[in-house]
Amino acid sequence: MSIPQTVYKGHGTGNDFVVYADPDGEYEPTGDEIRFLDDRHFGIGGDGLLRLTHPRHVSDLDADQVAFFENEGVEWFMDYRNADGSLAEMCGNGTRVTALFAQMMGYAAGPGGEPFRLGTRAGVKTLTSLGEVEGLGRNVFRIDMGAWKSDETKTFEVTIPGTEGSARGTFVDMGNPHVVAVVEDRSGDGLADDATLPAVADLDLVTKPVVAPVLESDQNAEFVRVDAIDREENRGVAFMRVNERGCGETLSCGTGLCATAVTLRKLTGIDDWAITVRGGTLMVHVDDKHVELTGDAAIVGRVELL
């Protein structure tokens, strides 16, 4: 087995992972091992696997990429794999869990200490440990998710096989691809007038959504209900569900939350969003250049594999 005997279980607002440290580069997992560990019936269970290692020990990084991270002063890399064993570019919730795990292992400073610079396949992400924050959790991190890219709004049609109706989706690149569809709008701005899908809470997201036209790469799909907009305070409130490529519906998706806030900003001009997912509430700030995501993380247990 190419994974260590001791692994950990963690989650970021319900988006859960098997986590382990590999400082010497001895334990790069195979696809079969990832699928076993993340299986909720025969393994530990998780939406993905987080291997904390040094950039030089990540086999899909070439020499130029390793040199880039070393020149940026990045010691640690989040080698993230989806539950189906596939590589993933980025996971916002995974970065917070990785940072908390790094604190536990003594690799990163706690609240009030130096921000933690973490390598990912989507570049360097900087996480600031905030500790306990009322309304968000006990181990809260603010992460600079970096630049976002997006096309014109509502250029895609999103449907769910077996469910009547459709909604218009907006493409957002957060280092991984997303299509965000506003399905309900309680703010009175008419943001979902073109949507005929059922209410967000009632959607069948076990079934993989279909996006047309088809993107070159598979994408995550977010379905959103806008609950309130306060233009004087430049704040909005929303609820989101997501079908995440490689694992299906998850209780939370960090890059999906960011993609949702980017889309809502494009539609409303509002920069700050409190977005609730089934795993909790997170804060997202968007400007023209980047996105900041603030939310909780937890390490819930240590597992000795037999």
Automatic annotation (TrEMBL):
<dbReference type="InterPro" id="IPR001653">
    <property type="entry name" value="DAP_epimerase_DapF"/>
</dbReference>
<feature type="binding site">
    <location>
        <begin position="244"/>
        <end position="245"/>
    </location>
    <ligand>
        <name>substrate</name>
    </ligand>
</feature>
<feature type="active site">
    <location>
        <position position="91"/>
    </location>
</feature>
<keyword id="KW-0457">Lysine biosynthesis</keyword>
<feature type="binding site">
    <location>
        <position position="176"/>
    </location>
    <ligand>
        <name>substrate</name>
    </ligand>
</feature>
<feature type="active site" description="Proton donor">
    <location>
        <position position="91"/>
    </location>
</feature>
<dbReference type="Pfam" id="PF01678">
    <property type="entry name" value="DAP_epimerase"/>
</dbReference>
<feature type="binding site">
    <location>
        <position position="15"/>
    </location>
    <ligand>
        <name>substrate</name>
    </ligand>
</feature>
<keyword id="KW-0963">Cytoplasm</keyword>
<dbReference type="GO" id="GO:0008837">
    <property type="term" value="F:diaminopimelate epimerase activity"/>
</dbReference>
<feature type="binding site">
    <location>
        <position position="82"/>
    </location>
    <ligand>
        <name>substrate</name>
    </ligand>
</feature>
<comment type="similarity">
    <text>Belongs to the diaminopimelate epimerase family.</text>
</comment>
<feature type="binding site">
    <location>
        <position position="220"/>
    </location>
    <ligand>
        <name>substrate</name>
    </ligand>
</feature>
<dbReference type="InterPro" id="IPR018510">
    <property type="entry name" value="DAP_epimerase_AS"/>
</dbReference>
<feature type="binding site">
    <location>
        <begin position="92"/>
        <end position="93"/>
    </location>
    <ligand>
        <name>substrate</name>
    </ligand>
</feature>
<comment type="function">
    <text>Catalyzes the stereoinversion of LL-2,6-diaminopimelate (L,L-DAP) to meso-diaminopimelate (meso-DAP), a precursor of L-lysine and an essential component of the bacterial peptidoglycan.</text>
</comment>
<keyword id="KW-0413">Isomerase</keyword>
<comment type="subunit">
    <text>Homodimer.</text>
</comment>
<feature type="active site" description="Proton acceptor">
    <location>
        <position position="253"/>
    </location>
</feature>
<dbReference type="GO" id="GO:0009089">
    <property type="term" value="P:lysine biosynthetic process via diaminopimelate"/>
</dbReference>
<protein>
    <recommendedName>
        <fullName>Diaminopimelate epimerase</fullName>
        <ecNumber>5.1.1.7</ecNumber>
    </recommendedName>
</protein>
<feature type="site" description="Could be important to modulate the pK values of the two catalytic cysteine residues">
    <location>
        <position position="178"/>
    </location>
</feature>
<feature type="binding site">
    <location>
        <begin position="254"/>
        <end position="255"/>
    </location>
    <ligand>
        <name>substrate</name>
    </ligand>
</feature>
<keyword id="KW-0028">Amino-acid biosynthesis</keyword>
<feature type="site" description="Could be important to modulate the pK values of the two catalytic cysteine residues">
    <location>
        <position position="244"/>
    </location>
</feature>
<dbReference type="GO" id="GO:0005829">
    <property type="term" value="C:cytosol"/>
</dbReference>
<comment type="pathway">
    <text>Amino-acid biosynthesis; L-lysine biosynthesis via DAP pathway; DL-2,6-diaminopimelate from LL-2,6-diaminopimelate: step 1/1.</text>
</comment>
